[in-house]
Design goal:
This protein is mainly alpha-helical and about 200 residues long. About 55% of the residues lie in helices and about 0% in strands. Helix 3 packs across helix 5 and helix 3 crosses helix 8. It is elongated, with a radius of gyration of 24 Å.
Length: about 200
């Protein structure tokens, strides 16, 4: 990042570089912020005069991808789940299998076998196995947990980047953020300078 900040050749490519030149030091919070601005288009890699085979071996998209993955783990909530990001494939497989098993076991334990294995027709038959309120309670809990985990992760991220809490109460800042998100402002890759052809090679 120090080399990029000195060179600034890529500052018009995407949102990462304007954010970078506003800083001299790069604490973890700032690196996480810039890593999540990056969407891995690769334009800076192809434009960089210090990318491989240069001896500096600078690869900004790869560095940003690693920092982005680490930020997902750092801001996971509850924190005890953070380690699962390193082996999420295995974790998801086990959790999915156990969830299905518990779900089916709960059906069998909760309902009379004749209800579980019977044929149901007519109005309300859809809820014979599982009442509507039970569905709302089960899946509503999962939905609320997802919202809470997102809020807590965003709170930790906000604290790390050192942004004052007052910004969240500033209507102009909130409106600008909503416009940027709605228009996908930071996903344009710099327009014509974004490398659309994955077969493009570095030009030094």
């Amino acid at each position: 990042m120090t080399v990029c900040n000195s060179c600034r050749y890529c500052e018009g490519l995407c949102a990462v570089f304007p954010a970078m030149i506003a800083r001299r030091d790069f604490p973890d919070g700032d690196l996480n912020y810039m890593a999540n601005l990056c969407h891995g288009c690769g334009a800076c890699f192809y434009d960089c005069q210090f990318s491989p085979p240069h001896q500096f071996n600078i690869n900004v998209p790869r560095a940003m991808a690693r920092a982005r993955a680490e930020s997902y783990q750092a801001y996971a909530w509850p924190r005890m789940f953070a380690g699962l990001f390193a082996r999420n494939g295995l974790a998801i497989s086990i959790i999915a299998a156990l969830s299905v098993a518990v779900f089916i076991a709960g059906f069998a334990a909760w309902n009379d076998p004749s209800v579980l294995y019977g044929t149901h027709t007519g109005p309300g038959s859809f809820y014979k196995l599982m009442p509507h309120n039970a569905m709302v309670a089960l899946f509503g809990t999962v939905f609320l947990y997802a919202i809470l985990a997102t809020i807590m992760g965003a709170r930790a991220f906000w604290h790390d980047i050192g942004e004052p809490a007052e910004t969240l109460a500033d209507p102009r800042s909130l409106w600008q953020a909503m416009k940027d998100a709605g228009k996908l402002r930071y996903l344009d890759g710099g327009g014509a300078d974004c490398q659309a052809d994955e077969n493009d090679t570095p030009d030094h």
